[in-house]
Amino acid sequence: MSSATSDISQTRWFFTGMRGLFSLPAIILMISFVGFSAFALQSGVSRTEAMVMTATVWALPAKMILIGTMTSGANLLAIFLAVSLSSIRMMPMVASLVPEMRTEKTPTWLLLFLSHFVAITAWVFAMGSFKNVPREGRVAYFAGFGITLVTVNTILVGVCYGLVSQFPPVVAALLFFLTPVYFTASIWATGRQSVVKVAFIVGVVSGPVLAVLVPGFDILIAGLGGGTLAYLFDRYVIRGEKAQARSDQPDAAVSTEEVV
After folding, report:
1. Which helix (H) or strand (E) holds 11?
2. If we measure between CA atoms, which residue out of 233, 179, 241, 181 comes closest to residue 202?
3. d(CA 153, CA 159)
4. How far apart are CA 63 and CA 166, in angstroms?
5. 212-260: per-residue pLDDT in tens?
6. CA 129 from chain center: how many Å?
7. Among residues 84, 93, 201, 215, which one has the fewest Cβ atoms lying within 10 Å of its Cβ?
8. Which of 138, 165, 191 is the last residue in one of the domains?
9. SS3 77
């Protein structure tokens, strides 16, 4: 009876996660994939190739890099390295998300499988909604959201591939641009640690400057250098001040007792 009840509960949380398809992050991402359909069509990528990219590469920026390197005539190794390096940025998201939903009974293979569905949309949605989901239901909840979102976007790309040819180029560009605008605001709003917000500020400031000074290496330098700078600032300045404030509190209490 206990096992049957657990299965029913997991199924219920899976379908609850599926309903996340109607959330604002998911809707904006789906609109952006309409813009991706236009980009794929204009780049000479076939409908089938665009759908396979959506299902397997998943993260939207990685697909843009994939198509860009393909159309530039780069060799297979260069394409592989470019897409792989762009996807490394997902590792911190996976590292922060998995502990929030893992239980002692969660198999490793399932976590590895679900890590494929971790991108900015899924990360923002999950981190914002997990507080309303019991830990034992979070794996099913995330699976319902991630698998549904990938499946629907794959179908959406296939359906819209022929339709977007009728869109003016500026409309397709605006549809695609919705995602970075929304998630720039979402990452700031969902950042729980001070180091995340420090890194965000460093990236926003240094990104445009480096794009002018060292085009082609701006993202790499901003990511590694900015992230390192944010970590050091958070560790030795922000945390240092908090530690100093805590260490001063007992002294204040002692001096008050002495006065009394």
Report:
1. helix 2-18
2. 233
3. 10
4. 22
5. 888 767 767 777 787 788 888 888 887 777 776 777 665 544 444 444 4
6. 14
7. 215
8. 191
9. helix
Which of 139, 174, 191 lies at the terminal end of a domain, its last residue? 191
**What pLDDT was estimated at residue 3?**
56
114 in the same domain as 34: yes
Alpha carbons within 13 A on the beta-carbon side of 11: 6
Read off the amino acid at residue 252: A
Co-location of 235 and 160 in the same domain: no
In angstroms, the Cα distances linking 226 to 87, 180, 191, 210 are 18, 19, 16, 11
Q: Quick: pLDDT tens for 5-35.
A: 566 688 899 999 999 999 888 888 888 888 8
Backbone angles phi, psi at 133, to 5 degrees: -120, 130
- As given in the structure block, the two tokens for residue 137 are 């239901």
Residue 183: the pLDDT is: 63
pLDDT at 1: 44
Where on the phi/psi map is residue 71: left (φ > 0), alpha (ψ -120 to 50), or beta? alpha
pLDDT in tens, 51-99: 999 998 878 878 888 888 888 777 888 888 878 877 887 888 898 899 9
CB contact at 8 A, 108 and 80: no
Q: How many domains does the chain have?
A: 2
